[in-house]
């Protein structure tokens, strides 16, 4: 081609010279011996030789070893064989400057004939920079490739035809789909199991937004089928002419992050809705946060509590030692648990179960205290009730055992006593008929008879007591039972100067029980009140009040006296069978145990209220029949 051009420009040498002299490439001609015949200014600049130095020199001057030594032979071989791998084919060679430095040159050489002479012309360019740029580009490209495969983010390239152009290692591993299986496939057919609706909506949104990246979270199925979450971002690739040229999608697995978010949400829900109070303080024990249960239990609002020290709740029931131990445990073990009495805003002192945990930072400094506490007032109350119940139960057990015994004793005793009684009556009659004035004898008989009566009464009591619970219960008119019972006392209260006050609301009040047994209860209680006055010496007003209070489900009968009251020490004992404080022959101590037993049979409750020195009250709570039977 060079030859052609040369011919075309023959006769226009000045034009050719201008081109050669101004060319940016080195243009060198040599003869068939290899000596330089022309060496243009660009050649002089590139190689550093002046025209004078170059002209006539062997072209091998411009070559490093081993080419330098081989070149003469090369030309000779060509001239002989006409074969060259060099001529007419642009290629890269190594060239050497005058200063000995070697560089890569691009060369295009051809042969021409000038007259009979054969000449070779070479056009050369220093391509060191280009080579370096190419190298840089190649390196950059490799760098990108390495990045693509090393990056833990999923990267998927999609071209303008919606086909997969990139699919990195993270994508392979996450979805279990290898690059070679998806490259060139349509994006929608890449086989990823994720929320496609969302993914496609995102890609079209991103195109609508003309060049802006869009992100979204979506559910996907991991290799292995586990349901997980990804955060994907789609970056559109826009050419410099503004044309949409596909997009690059990158994604991060955010399942763990989501889980911890969920956990955080859960924790805050627990905090909000827990029944236990929660206090969070800083390392200096200044309250930073409290939950709604805290406010409910203590009465302090969050606003009032925050900034304060938890000691605002101190009740004063624990001493300094207690708090010192608490702090010592927090310091040593990082936690403290126990029961503590605290004070509500309204001044009420209450028991709580408290657990405090110290939260430390990595340096081991306590940065937070978290206290969780539960108001145990209700639990304590229930415990006490349970204790009472178990006391009542053991009382009932005792009664049952004694009941068995009593029924045996009663049976045995009854017959001989009857016999004695009859004998005494007979004795009495005989004594009267024969008019024997044996007043002494009569007196003896009277005493026998009285004792027998008493023995019979004891047995009767024992019998009542041992009676099995077979006796029926039915609706009973309370007012009637009380009025019947009072009759039994006749004038004996008046004689003793005891006034009896009865307060019964108008109308019939029905309770579950049995008429005669309810009377028995009331008689026993009145008798006890009556007897209690025997022990007082002051001249206080002697009063017995019987009061009935009616409510929807229950009726409460109170028998209250103004007597000496019951000392705390014996309060628990008075229901025990045979417990009495009365002198021998006066009381058997069985009255209240019978009362207790009967009330139990009725399904009711018996309580005693008394202050030593100022009277006693027996309170009977009886159930009303279901459906309000009248
Ligand atoms: N209203 C009362 N005031 C003071 N003490 C009472 C009263 N009621 C009962 N007590 C005390 O309880 C004890 C037991 O009473 P309980 O009725 O069981 O037996 P008692 O009255 O001694 O004998 P009994 O009833 O068998 O004749 C009495 O001895 C008395 O000490
Ligand atoms: Mg009694």
Question: Describe it for me?
Answer:
The chain is α+β, with helices and mostly antiparallel strands and 630 residues long. It folds into five domains: 2-132, PAS domain (Beta-Lactamase, 2-Layer Sandwich), CATH 3.30.450.20; 151-259, Beta-Lactamase; 274-375, Beta-Lactamase; 381-466, Orthogonal Bundle (Helix Hairpins), CATH 1.10.287; 474-628, 2-Layer Sandwich (Heat Shock Protein 90). It is 42% helix and 26% strand. It has 20 helices and 22 strands. The chain has a five-stranded antiparallel beta sheet with strand order 2-1-5-4-3. It has a five-stranded antiparallel beta sheet with strand order 7-6-10-9-8, sandwiched between helices. A five-stranded antiparallel beta sheet has the order 12-11-15-14-13. A hairpin with a 5-residue loop joins strand 14 and strand 15 (366-375). 21% of the residues are buried. The structure holds adenosine-5'-triphosphate and magnesium ion. Residues 524, 527-528, 587, 591 line the site of magnesium ion. Pfam families: HATPase_c, HisKA, PAS, PAS_9. Residues 12-82, 140-185, 263-309 form the PAS domain.
List the helices and strands and how they pair.
Elements: H1 2-8, H2 13-22, E1 26-31, E2 36-39, H3 41-47, H4 51-54, H5 67-81, E3 91-96, E4 102-114, E5 117-126, H6 128-150, E6 154-158, E7 164-167, H7 169-175, H8 179-182, H9 196-208, E8 214-221, E9 227-238, E10 244-253, H10 255-273, E11 277-282, E12 287-290, H11 292-298, H12 302-305, H13 320-333, E13 335-343, E14 349-360, E15 366-375, H14 377-433, H15 439-466, E16 474-477, H16 478-487, H17 492-495, E17 498-503, E18 510-513, H18 515-532, E19 542-550, E20 554-561, H19 568-571, H20 591-601, E21 605-610, E22 616-623
Parallel strand pairs: 17-19
Antiparallel strand pairs: 1-2, 1-5, 3-4, 4-5, 6-7, 6-10, 8-9, 9-10, 11-12, 11-15, 13-14, 14-15, 16-18, 19-20, 20-22, 21-22
Helix pairs in contact: 14-15, 16-18, 18-20
The structure holds adenosine-5'-triphosphate and magnesium ion.
